[in-house]
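Lab manual, section 2.4: Encoding a predicted structure.

Procedure: take the sequence of the chain (259 residues), apply the prediction step described in section 2.3, and record the output as structure tokens. A sample record is shown.
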Amino acid sequence: MPICMSVCVAEESPKFVEVKKPVHIGYDGIDGIEMVRNGSKVSIEVVLANFSKVVEGNKSELFFHSDLGVLPSIIVDEIPKEYKTPFIVDHRTVEEVKVTLSGDAPEVNKRKENVTLLNITQKIKGEEYSVIDIKRTVSSELIEDALDAIWKAGAEIEKATLAIANATGVDVSGAKTSLTLANEHLNNSQRYYNEGRPAEALEEAGRALNSAKEAEGKARAAVGGKTRGTVTIIAAVVVIAIVALLLVIQKRRRKRGIF
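Recorded output:
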């Protein structure tokens, strides 16, 4: 299980408690991407220390939230405590609070961003202060493959559209038919993805890519055919001109008695 140390602590350091480094976050990633594989095990350990001694009432409340659907375990100065919400901390006596959490990432059929693995908020006399907010994107290899294929198909459709637009003065009806088919496949792919069907989305994106490449190829072939035809005509004209010139020269020589 790879461990990622990147976390979001409060934009400004928490005023009344310190988050000790490093923060442990363990989960199965996706091919080096900082994303959590859906359904994989997630483990987190956060240690809070140096609780401020100058807070009104000498106590604060800690609130915990996680989208993993499990409750954290709390250890105060190496003694396990019963989970309560809010969890009261006496700043005069507590040295460290260790918060651990272990659960499964949600099962998703589409990429899900900003999943809260663990959020800790501190409340003092009615005022709330963010302590730490650990968020990740949850996905899968299949989902990411589908999204990548959709992007590639869209890029290829743009190239085919440009090739057709630049093919002036030639018949590109075949290319346009292939381009229309490519757009239909891409629309199907995007619809399947939004419906949470990444496998079908991947297949349709592949068809869109192939049709777009076919459209671009037909457009370029049409332009190439026109160019070859033009070159052939020019070559024929040049040959005729040369033959005519030779005949004129030969005729003049005969008049002069030169053979």
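Check your result against the sample. The chain has three helices and 13 strands.
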